[in-house]
Amino acid sequence: MRIDVVTIFPEYLRPLELALVGRAAARDLVDIHTHDLRQWTHDIHRTVDDSPYGGGPGMVMRPEPWDGALREVCERDPSRRPRVVVPTPAGRPFTQSYAAELAAQDWLVFCCGRYEGIDGRVVDAWADDEISIGDYVLAGGEAATLVIVEAVTRLLPGVVGNAESLTDDSFAHGLLEGPVYTRPPVWEGRAVPEVLRSGDHAAIARWRRDEALLRTGRRRPELLERVDLSERDRSVLAR
Ligand code: 6GU
């Protein structure tokens, strides 16, 4: 997969060089390019913003630098068309299934807005997706782009070594994952649940499902509406 990111803060995307995404890039499993939006300004001040039509606080990103950037970035390979993503708190909610949908694309372009956002005409003309990572307001799209790129990259073939790590994830079954434990067997007077040390794999799988169900019921009950619950699952939740 190729990923381009257009931003006025290219350094903000440096974490993509680290850890899981950085290793995936070093192994050519993902090819990430960041671009400074100011490359596509033509005035001495390299202006990217202006005041909003209709008045109000803050500034809006002007369409011309964005159009210049997107023409150059998106038209570099005329044989394919990228999926153009604009992170915005006004977007479609980002979820694990949305991450999987993006992971199936072979080219993504992220447009990081700052200030009050990007001129609506350039969004209309270019964006395939406007995505929100949650119901709170960030200062710009860069942090959201880091979140989306990490969630997508870990789903690409070969990135996560043990494919079981993906199928066991929170959300893989539509449930929150329960607690996990490692050595020592007793720490500060707290013991690891006995069943996990029993070697009984069926009992362990059942215990994990029960913990996931109970945690989801307590913390995110609305998630249970989308899960196919067995009779046994329902009896666990009724406890
Ligand atoms: Cl995608 N962008 C910004 N600026 N704020 C957000 C967001 C995105 N998602 C939630 N808040």
TrEMBL record:
EC class name: transferase
UniProt binding sites for S-adenosyl-L-methionine: 113, 133-138
Keywords for this protein: Cytoplasm, Methyltransferase, S-adenosyl-L-methionine, Transferase, tRNA processing
Domain tRNA methyltransferase TRMD/TRM10-type as annotated: residue spans: 1-225
CDD domains according to UniProt: TrmD-like
Nucleus in keyword set: no
Keyword Cytoplasm: yes
Catalysis performed (reactions): guanosine(37) in tRNA + S-adenosyl-L-methionine = N(1)-methylguanosine(37) in tRNA + S-adenosyl-L-homocysteine + H(+)
Complex formation: Homodimer.
Family per similarity comment: Belongs to the RNA methyltransferase TrmD family.
Protein function: Specifically methylates guanosine-37 in various tRNAs.
Name the UniProt record assigns to this protein: tRNA (guanine-N(1)-)-methyltransferase
